[in-house]
Specification:
The complex is a heterodimer of chains A (791) and B (158).
Chain A: H1 15-19, E1 35-41, E2 47-53, H2 55-58, E3 63-68, H3 69-74, E4 106-107, E5 113-119, H4 122-129, E6 133-138, E7 164-171, H5 173-181, E8 185-193, E9 205-211, E10 216-221, H6 226-237, E11 245-248, H7 264-276, E12 280-283, H8 286-292, E13 299-307, E14 313-325, E15 352-361, H9 375-393, H10 397-404, E16 413-414, E17 420-421, H11 426-436, H12 442-451, E18 455-464, H13 472-477, E19 486-492, E20 498-502, H14 511-523, E21 530-533, H15 551-577, E22 585-588, E23 591-594, E24 600-602, H16 603-611, E25 626-631, E26 640-649, E27 656-666, H17 673-692, E28 724-727, H18 745-762, H19 776-786
Parallel strand pairs in A: 1-12, 10-11, 14-15, 20-21, 27-28
Antiparallel strand pairs in A: 1-5, 2-4, 2-6, 3-5, 7-15, 8-13, 9-10, 9-12, 13-14, 16-17, 18-26, 19-20, 19-25, 22-23, 23-24, 26-27
Chain B: E1 2-8, E2 11-17, H1 23-30, E3 49-52, E4 55-58, E5 71-73, H2 86-93, H3 103-116, H4 122-128, H5 140-154
Parallel strand pairs in B: 1-5
Antiparallel strand pairs in B: 1-2, 3-4, 3-5
The chains are: A alpha+beta (791), B alpha+beta (158).
């Protein structure tokens, strides 16, 4: 193994620019003639726009344009599209109301953009925005589930009666009902999955530039997938062909899903630039981000699990209401359906499953994918339910999981809800996590905590997720309007250094290092002689970006395909130079060699020959050494594992402290263990944040109560113990690297482990249920209620 | 307009500014020192942390005119002669950064933390970073980096 190849904890190549303040983020870019945009956003959740007076704003110093929904309509801009179409139970398509870039006629959530002000400075734009006068007629609003589904609830859209976007199901209802009829016992649960805000620390920004001389648009934007943004701009919103549209996502300060989507501001800065003749930049502030970035989760579910007398699972029935917000964001319809419902078999054999999901419109910000996206909701539901089954049955929460695990010999395993798991081995991760948290001595720790007046609890979650998104034909049949392959080009330079152009995008994941390690492993080229280029549609042939833990599994596989072509071509050149048959040439350790001899040529020699083809098989082999590839995965990948958490609760105050976290994941083959552990740490922090701290809380009128960092509780360093992270590898069977993906495991696996730990701690007091986030107030009230107090 | 004289990363800068200008906007927009970032609007996230006369300050919370006559160090001024400061080196060695956006503020806070407490415990580091938010790392490797950076700084490497 090379010191910088696969499996090595190589320190990151990209660190230096970030550590010295030389990162180049979207807001850092100032173009010649730069102007600035500020949006006037609705303060009401639902209102009719009676009049907009922009006279004073337009006359304010430095103002170039004050634009409204009427201007958007007059210029024929398209709406913001959604990328998935879900079909109802009866086969009809979902309701798909329009999403104008600036509000027309009505506003439908607090933060809905109404007016765009463009001025020569940020200060002038802000001053002018304050002068815009909008006459609103407030209308009744609905923000919450299940209220939005109740008869007589305020309606978000005329074309979506009852606020239903779609009424969808998956699984076999008859088989599930029949299995329930045979059950020895049935366990049921009602729970909510709290709405959270993604909160990448870099706020969204977009800088649009229209170059009239070349009729070219350039957009710098905080995006996880610039090609997808270009596709949606080109085909739907801006309606400009791709060859006249360049989208650059430079350094991006975290995404967590929120920067996948095509947002109105991206369209509007390009459009405004064409109108004012200057580049137009908009940078969100944090309060604006809470009102305009897509949120995540927000489900209400009822679930029932049927068990036989031996505690084997017989069937699962789930009914979920999913809040989609006021407008359909890019992936929104897919999240509660194809990323949630079809994960509900978990790591278990459950012979029959039936899931119904209603996607609901409300007067809130759009809800879309946030780290995990649907899979955290599925895992939370299933792992709370399994724990409840153990507790109600008086059995061991670990034993009941072991008993129902899919066994290694059962792979490939076809679930009753569409997915076919290719491989897995669940008991080793369970055993590893239990050993790391010292489960056998739990009772002693509980007793010791009790002596200090604390309630200690243990919680577990055994999860599975589907990532490596995604086989295009499969997702196409499920309603996706795009393919989900990945693309790569490998350019070998004449002196043997390498540039890789990848359609994935790194916004913290470390691709500039891990993909260089992959090149080092395959070609033997030193990682310092490899550059990874991402985030620019003019430099990279194509790509679908980074989300769903797909970059290494799908993007890495595309690079491998291109590398295979490079090596094949190199063998032909080497065969010529070594006067051997191509079938006798092997490539290893950076050398092309005639099998069984010491006759060899280095990789650099072959690269040089390809570009200086003096002695070259020119009749049959083209000069140059550059290859591109597209890779479309054959299946999803299925990371899985066990997360264990211990908490201590102060019963006087309700404060929950996470005191120990031990996880063991199977994320497939690992390129860089340091980066993989770092991804797990970050996911755990978000998952624990959701379980204990975070909630995007709206009041009943649709006002966001947690709209900045004063009142949305972001996790801090002190909220966590040192995480114990372990891995047990089973290789993915259907991609060339054996990689499954790691980006989301923490956010998916840990929330139910935290809440199960809280409930274990509170069990002696008679508390049997709590919803996330388990804040001190909520825990204290649950204790008081269970004790017959006044809460 | 107001005239201010500020020493930034060892260099004297004189500027005419709107007196409403925040220190962070002065650094980013007037001096093009874009390493100092803005992640929130309520002085919670700490991405904008710089040193003013040697002490860490959230530069979104201070007017540039308040820095008149002061010495300001930003992340761009931390490495000397191309050699990373021990805290920067520790963040690299410990994988204490992912997307890099909180990193400048985190490093500047960490340096000040160690100046005030040269031999901090892990718990003291976690408490000492309460003014800085990171969404990527779960803080684990940041805490490790600060401990390692403190050790190097104690060793008189700088």
């Amino acid at each position: 193994m090379s010191s910088h190849g696969m499996g090595v904890a190589v320190a990151r190549k990209e660190d230096r620019r970030f550590l010295t303040g030389k990162g180049r983020y979207t807001d850092d870019i100032v173009l010649p003639g730069q102007t600035y945009a500020v949006f006037v956003r609705s303060p009401y959740a639902h209102a009719r726009l009676r009049a907009i007076d922009t006279t004073a704003a337009a006359a304010s110093p430095g103002v170039l344009a004050v634009l409204t929904g009427k201007d958007v309509a007059d210029d024929g801009l398209g709406g913001i599209p959604t990328g998935w179409q879900i079909h109802n139970k009866d086969g009809s398509p979902m309701a798909e109301p329009p999403h104008p870039a600036l509000a027309q006629g009505k506003v439908r959530h607090v933060g809905d953009p109404v007016v765009m002000v463009v001025a020569d400075s940020k200060v002038h734009a802000r001053e002018a925005a304050a002068l815009v006068e909008i006459d609103y007629e407030p209308l009744p609003a609905v923000a919450h589930l299940p209220v939005a589904a109740a008869p007589g609830a305020p309606q978000v859209w005329d074309e979506a009666p009852g606020n239903v976007c779609f009424d969808w199901h998956v699984g076999d209802k008859a088989a599930t009902d029949a299995a329930f009829a045979q059950a020895a016992r049935v366990v049921s649960i009602d729970l909510a999955n709290n709405r959270i805000a993604p909160n990448a620390i870099e706020p969204r920004a977009a800088n649009g530039h229209f170059d009239a001389t070349g009729d070219q648009f350039t957009l710098y934007t905080t995006s996880q997938n610039p090609h997808l943004t270009r596709l949606l701009l080109g085909a739907f919103s801006l309606k400009v062909p791709e060859h006249r549209l360049r989208v650059v996502a430079p350094d991006v300060g975290g995404g967590f899903g929120s920067k996948i989507f095509h947002y109105a501001e991206e369209l509007l800065v390009l459009w405004a630039s064409r109108r004012v003749g200057h580049p137009v930049k908009w940078t969100s502030d944090r309060s604006e981000a809470f009102l305009s970035d897509a949120h995540g989760r927000d489900h209400v579910s009822h679930a029932e699990l049927a068990l036989d007398a031996e505690d084997k699972f017989l069937a699962l029935r789930v009914n979920t209401l999913a809040n989609l917000g006021a407008y359909l964001s890019t992936f929104a319809p897919a999240v509660p359906t194809y990323l949630h419902a079809i994960l509900l078999s978990g790591p278990y054999v459950i012979p029959a499953i039936y899931v119904e999901v209603k996607g609901m419109f409300t007067h809130t910000v759009a809800v879309d994918a946030v780290r995990g996206a649907g899979r955290p909701e599925a895992t939370y539901l299933l792992e709370r339910l399994v724990d409840k089954a153990a507790r109600e049955g008086g059995t061991d929460p670990i034993g009941i999981r072991r008993k129902n695990f899919i066994q290694p010999h059962q792979f490939p395993y076809q679930t009753p809800v569409a997915l076919c798991y290719d491989t897995g081995d669940y008991e080793p991760t369970l055993d590893m996590a239990l050993a790391a948290i010292d489960y056998p001595n739990l009772a002693a720790r509980k007793a010791e905590a009790k002596s200090r007046g604390k309630l200690r609890g243990f919680g577990i979650s055994t999860y599975i997720e589907a990532c490596g998104i995604a086989p295009s034909a499969v997702v196409g049949s499920l309603g996706a309007r795009a393919g989900l392959y990945e693309a790569a080009t490998v350019r070998v330079h004449p002196t043997g250094s390498v540039t890789v152009f990848t359609g994935t995008h790194s916004h913290g994941q470390g691709h500039e290092t891990t993909f260089a390690q992959l090149i080092n492993d395959r070609l033997g080229v030193a990682i310092d002689n490899v550059d990874i280029v991402h985030g620019d549609t003019d430099r990279i042939p194509f790509g679908m970006g980074t989300y769903g833990s797909r970059s290494a599994a799908v993007g890495g596989s595309a690079i491998v395909k291109a590398l295979d072509k490079i090596i094949d071509k190199g063998k032909k050149i080497a065969a010529h130079l070594l006067e051997a048959d191509v079938s006798d040439i092997e490539f290893s350790d950076g050398k092309f060699r005639v099998v069984g001899t010491d006759r060899e040529k280095g990789f650099g020699d072959i690269a040089f020959a390809a570009y200086v083809p003096h002695n070259y098989p020119i009749e049959t082999v083209e000069p140059g050494l550059e290859e591109g590839a597209f890779y479309d995965p054959k299946n999803f990948t299925f990371p899985a594992g066990t997360h264990c958490v211990e908490v201590e609760i102060d019963p006087e105050t309700g404060v929950v402290q996470v005191v120990d976290v031990a996880i063991a994941d199977d994320v497939g083959v690992i390129i860089n263990p340091m980066i993989v552990d770092g991804q797990a740490h970050g996911g755990l922090a978000q998952g624990i944040g959701q379980a204990l701290l975070e909630e995007c809380l709206y009041d009943e009128n649709g006002q966001l109560l947690a709209g900045n960092y004063m009142n949305y509780c972001m996790p801090r360093a002190e909220d966590f113990p040192r995480f114990k992270v372990g891995n047990h590898v089973t290789a993915c069977t259907h991609n060339p690297l054996g990689i499954k993906g790691v980006g989301e495991v923490g956010a998916i696996g840990v929330p139910p482990a935290v809440i199960n730990a809280v409930l274990d701690a509170l069990a002696p007091l008679g508390v049997t249920h709590i919803d996330m986030p388990a804040t001190p107030e909520k825990v204290w009230r649950a204790i008081q209620a269970a004790q017959g107090g006044a809460a | 307009m107001a005239t201010i004289t500020v020493e930034v990363n060892g260099q004297k800068r004189v500027a005419e500014i709107d007196p409403r200008t925040l220190l962070v906007d002065f650094l980013r927009e007037h001096l093009q020192l874009t390493g100092t970032h803005v992640g929130c609007d309520t002085s919670q996230c700490g991405a904008c942390t710089v040193h003013v006369d040697g002490k860490s300050v959230k530069s979104c919370t201070m007017l540039a005119v308040e820095a008149d006559g002061a010495a300001v160090t930003t992340i761009e001024g931390l490495a000397k002669g191309g050699e990373l400061h021990p805290m920067q080196a520790a963040f690299h060695a410990c994988h204490g950064l992912q997307c890099g956006f909180c990193t400048p503020g985190m490093v500047m806070s960490a340096v000040d933390l160690v100046h005030q407490n040269p031999n901090p415990t892990e718990a003291e580091v976690r408490h000492g970073l309460e003014g800085n938010l990171c969404r990527c790392t779960g803080y684990q490797n940041i805490v490790q980096a600060v401990l390692q950076g403190a050790e190097t700084m104690r060793g008189g490497a700088r």
